[in-house]
Design a protein that fits this description.
By secondary structure, the chain is of the alpha+beta class. Helices cover 39% and strands 28% of the residues.
Length: 161
């Protein structure tokens, strides 16, 4: 003998709607939990990525300071102006996954050694500097922000001729 399915009564229909709403609510809570977990995992990775990119940028900056000819360094159009003047430039350090740029402020300056001859920015004399040597301290500072924290990385290069 076959049994027929009972037709849905209004009470059974309402109970189905309540069960579906409860299941949807549980699903939304799980989705929010997993989204928060994914965001917290990638936030640490973002900091690491930014640190690696800024380190690489400052390594490049040190290489520029090391290989720049001293005559170019002393010129009026040098990338490194004489202290107290500071060259300030906004640079793109790299890009995060997804294409968001990482920008920072690069500040450059140079300081002559006090024993340099006056022609090289110092106050030395032929007695204190008989070899007419000149030394320059090149400084690069990179200022960048990760979330609400501001960081500064510096590199100092000493050049002697």
């Amino acid at each position: 003998m076959k049994t027929r399915p009972r037709p849905l009564t209004p009470r059974r229909r309402a109970s189905f709607v309540v069960e579906a709403a409860a299941a949807y609510g549980v699903l939304m809570i799980l989705a929010i939990y997993f989204l928060k977990s994914a965001i917290s995992i990638t936030s640490g990775q973002r900091w690491t990525i930014v640190q690696a990119m800024t380190d690489a940028f400052m390594t490049q900056e040190s290489a520029i300071a090391n290989r720049m000819p001293i005559d170019d360094l002393k010129s009026a159009t040098s990338l490194f102006p004489t202290h107290p003047t500071v060259s300030t430039v906004t640079v793109t350090v790299g890009r995060l996954p997804g294409g968001a740029p990482i920008t920072a402020t690069l500040k450059r300056t140079k300081r002559p050694d006090p024993n340099n001859l006056p022609s090289a920015g110092g106050s030395g004399t032929a007695v204190t500097n008989p070899a007419s040597m000149e030394a320059w301290k090149l400084q690069s500072m990179l200022v960048y922000t990760v979330r609400s924290q501001t960081y500064v990385k510096t590199r100092t290069t000493v050049r002697v001729r």
